[in-house]
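Entry:
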Amino acid sequence: MIESRLRVATTGTGFFSQFHYNGWQRMAEEGLVDLVAICNRTRSRAVMFAEKYGFRAVYEDFESMLDNESIDLVDIITPPQTHDQFVRAAVERDIGVICQKPFTPDLDTAQKLVERIEQRNGKVFVHEDFRFQPWYSKIKSLIDEGSIGDPYQIRFSLRPGDGQGTEAYLDRQPYFQKMPRFLVHETAIHFIDTFRYLMGEVKSVYAQLDRLNPVIAGEDAGYILFDFANGSRGLFDGNRLVDHAADNCRLTMGEMRVEGSLATVDLDGFGNIFLRCAHRNKAEKISFQWDDIDFGGDCVYFTNKHIVEHLLRASPVMNSAVEYLTNLKIEEAVYQSAAAAKKIDLAG
């Protein structure tokens, strides 16, 4: 446990990094962190971000930054092919890590990396932020307090509507077009984690995956069926080409329903939650507080602050790299299921 402000460094200045930097700036203003250094292969970008967000030093080489600065925590916001090297470099220097997802390009690399993290007793956390979206925190509390009774099943329909045509993803994250594994590896992994957060551990999966847009390399639509250890069931129904009713289709990225013995809970594309009790026709809108800040109801800030508070105060943490391996094993089982056209049981 660190007793004072965390000394934070970062690497990466791509599209999604803006949400990380906005959060770090707010945490610096709150007295939780000092913004020590920023690294980027294009120095001009690093300088621009350092000036905008208040970092003291700028680097083009990641390991030089780690060696020359006093750092407690480094936030890795770079593409997945860099993650193994960067995480190892930080762990060898006993520096804590937040690593953007996808954690690594494949399960084998992740397993070997986690083995080294455990050998070094490293503090590595995966930035899996969807479970920190405020509507899922509220749905979790409704489940835990018994408002829906025994949970029977969960369904999420992913409909961001951003995957049509030859220009799909190019204005925001162009590397999406070249990912050989896309829908599950990049997007559905969020809901694998969220489903586990809400419903418990996964026992088996069955998947059917398709590529609808021919300009991309990977799959962009599909169904994943989940059997949970507690006997409940789940369905992820993903299609990145189709949208849903929302002012911003990236706010919730779709719609969720959780059904239980006492009630059904629905999440819409505006971040609203409705609860309909069994044998009643009218649903009640559930009141809860959230702010439409940055991405997904400010979930990037909530995720990183959760990790910071763990390191400062030894509070419980949900995002360790060791625990995150479970998500990656489920992801691999999904791809195996789709390839073999059969249900895959998860050992352990």
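The mean pLDDT is 96.
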